[in-house]
Design brief:
Pfam families: ABC_tran, TOBE. InterPro entries: AAA+_ATPase, ABC_transporter-like_ATP-bd, ABC_transporter-like_CS, Mo/tungstate-bd_C_term_dom, Molybdenum_import_ModC, Mop_domain, P-loop_NTPase, Transp-assoc_OB_typ1. The chain is of the alpha+beta class and 357 residues long. It has nine helices and 21 strands. It has a six-stranded mixed beta sheet, with helices on both faces. Strand 11 and strand 12 form a beta hairpin. Helix 2 runs parallel beside helix 4 and helix 3 packs across helix 4. The radius of gyration is 24 Å and the shape is elongated.
Length: 357
């Protein structure tokens, strides 16, 4: 079932356009408050968009002030962080609730519930009450409940966030198996790159209520084009405008680097991406041939095994941090501490220039 979204929600400063192909799983990534859960609420019918439309498999679910299909008629399943099972019903009745609400007979709903409970590996829990379940068991039951109504679209809002380190991998495997069937589209909101890698075909990054990056999960995590994608990948990123010579930043400075894949025509917006391991830290401007040199102030210093991660703020671009990885010996020799003035150097060959959406 294909999904087309092009919506605006003025009250939440959301303006998002994206498409999900039939059977595709798209991970929605972004910082807290970026609008990810708001987007899911719009798709589920819990919020009405100010403008634009939502179309699922050719059916308009919402269109500005016009068409608005209520949640129970959308064919959309929503799985949240918490299982939210009905405490007064046993597991079977919880899972049968969806089919019963859609008009299935009691017998048919029960049969469907038992089928799906077996599919997610908890058929043996059918007679238990929610209070008798562990967190991982309850979330498996919640997955079964979401699937029992055969939704055309599955919305997963941080489904593993509330689970402990033992339960999360087990439930992730259940979701992987369910989503791999390819018979329904899904949107997965998550902060965990492992969830995106294990479950999704493609990743969309949402920042400030806007899509800032979209592409295969592997690409977003290894060659990011958004600030949040770079943070997930542990890389440094500087935005600007692409030119024939490199990337021109807001302060007028030029970042030299190699064209990414695909290369971009000059004039468009882009980003320079590089690894903290490629950043050399000096107490003074070293001069010489390196084309990428910035004065900066140390913000934070944190040991990471055999290296020290130094987070700095650029003097010319104070809204942007640049991280550097240095050896313990170098950190001691440079006397790195918050507030220290340093100079950063990155070779052009270590920088990749990418266009942005």
């Amino acid at each position: 079932m294909s999904l087309h979204v092009d919506v605006r929600l003025t009250a939440r400063d959301l303006d998002v356009a994206l498409d999900v192909a039939t059977g595709e799983v798209v991970a929605v990534l972004g910082p807290n408050g970026a609008g990810k859960s708001t987007l899911l609420a719009v798709l589920a019918g819990l919020l009405r968009p100010s403008a634009g439309k939502v179309v699922l498999d050719g059916t308009v679910l919402a269109e500005g002030s016009g068409t608005f299909v209520p949640p129970h008629r959308r064919g959309v399943g929503l799985l949240a962080q918490e299982a939210l099972l009905f405490p007064h019903l046993d597991v079977t009745a919880n899972v049968a609730f969806g089919p019963r609400s859609a008009g299935a007979s009691r017998a048919r709903a029960r049969t469907r519930a038992l089928e799906v409970l077996a599919e997610v590996g908890v058929a043996d829990l059918a007679a238990r009450r929610p209070r008798e379940l562990s967190g991982g068991q309850a979330q498996r039951v919640a997955i079964a409940r979401a699937l029992a109504a055969d939704p055309r679209l599955l919305l997963l809002d941080e489904p593993l966030a509330a689970l402990d380190v033992t339960a999360a991998p087990e439930v992730r495997q259940v979701l992987r198996r369910v989503l791999a069937r390819g018979d329904r589209s899904a949107l997965l909101v998550t902060h965990d790159p492992l969830d995106a890698l294990a479950l999704a075909d493609r990743a969309v990054v949402v920042e400030g209520g806007r899509v800032t990056e979209s592409g295969p999960v592997q690409q977003v995590l290894t060659a990011p084009r958004s600030r949040f994608g770079a943070r997930l990948a542990g890389l440094d990123l500087l935005p600007g405008v692409l030119t024939a010579e490199g990337l021109r930043t807001r302060d007028g400075g030029l970042v030299a680097g190699l064209a990414g894949d695909p290369p971009a025509a000059p004039g468009g917006r882009g980003v320079a991406v590089f690894s903290p391991a490629a950043v050399a830290v000096h107490p003074r401007d070293p001069g010489g041939s390196p084309r990428n040199r910035w004065a900066a102030t140390v913000v934070d210093v944190s040991p990471r095994g055999e290296v020290v991660r130094v987070r700095t703020r650029l003097e010319a671009l104070p809204e942007h941090d640049v991280q550097a990885d240095v050896t313990l010996a170098a950190a001691a020799e440079l006397d790195l501490a918050p507030g220290a003035a340093v100079h950063l150097v990155v070779k052009a060959t270590a920088v990749r220039l990418h266009p942005t959406v």
